[in-house]
Amino acid sequence: MGSWSPFFKTMKETLMSLKTEKGYPIYKCPRNTCVVGLIIAMDSIEKLFRKYVTQEELLQFLPTYKLSQDGLELLFSSVRARFGRNNNPDSLQLEYAMRRMLTVRINPSGSSNCTAQDDTALAKVCPLSSICNPDLPSEQEEDYPWSDCSDLSLFVKNVVVHIAGFVAKKLHPRLKCRLCSEALIHDDPFYTEICQEYLLLTEKNNGGLCVPSEHLVAVCKVAESTIRQHLNHGSKSIKKQAIIRSCQQILLQDEYLFRSLRIDYEEDHTPLSDHVFNLITQILTEYIKIRLHHVAKQETLQHNPVTLRNQMNKLVIFNGN
Question: pLDDT (tens digit, 9 = 90+) per residue, 273-307?
Fold first, then answer.
């Protein structure tokens, strides 16, 4: 305190001595915000230092940069970076931007009103798995937080992998981004031959089936688990959009899911793009569509177990079944 307190005292005396051309003190003029603001800021810093550092000894030093509103300006800069030329977002766009910033780190623009002086970033939403297991695996480990769905049997997981391959085949020609297309296909076919969840796919594959990536399978397993939870309340209460939203809330919290898409960069795949969110949504939409068709078919067979469509393909029109 002995090094900067005399400097503050000298600065306050200098600011108080400033006068206009007519000899009137500036701090008494109508436009005295700059002078009065600096004096109040220095007085506040001195009082905070005495209370929290000298008297109560709660802090070893007072980080004055944390007291400025640079953090707020940088937050606004990150929000504006989400909308390109649109610097006046509405409430819904602001909600989407904040949701994105809580899951993926977005750096503020270098040409904004102020420049970041440290590496402080907006707090991210932690994965649900880290709450149950504080020893979260590192990036090099292969045991991802979403790798285990305890409510699914090994047979169900094999079926999910088989359907996931069909989902990858359906989405591959639709995706214009090369990185997103490659993220759907497994890059190590030899691993799938020894993995228990890929046994059904390996047995039926004669070279024409798509081998889905582990990330794609993870999304499909979460969707399958969510569908089964909704089925416990009855098939009539199932809504496609509700299932998609439930899965998105779980998957978007996982920073390991499609991690390569968050790191790699191309001209049509920038770090600020929504490719991961859009890819997850398309996977969920395609998988849930397949599963709900099967649920509807099973429900129809329960109400009308005897079907004549396959036996009398021409006469079914006249029978009305």
Answer: 577 888 889 999 999 999 999 888 888 878 876 65
94 and 57 in a single domain? The answer is no
Task: State the amino acid at position 174 in one-letter form.
Answer: R
Compare 247 and 207 and report the one with higher pLDDT. Answer: 247
Other beta carbons less than 10 A from residue 211's beta carbon: 23
Question: Rounded to 5 degrees, what angle do the CA atoms 54, 55, 59 make?
Answer: 60
Distance of CA 273 to the CA centre of its chain: 12
Instruction: For the chain, give the percent of residues with pLDDT over 90.
Output: 10
CA 193/CA 199 separation, integer angstroms: 7
The residue among 294, 126, 175, 174 whose CA lies nearest residue 224 is 294
289 vs 121: CA distance, rounded Å: 38
**Domain that includes residue 170, residue range:** 141-303
14 and 81 in a single domain? The answer is no
**Residue 98 contacts residue 81 (beta carbons within 8 Å):** no
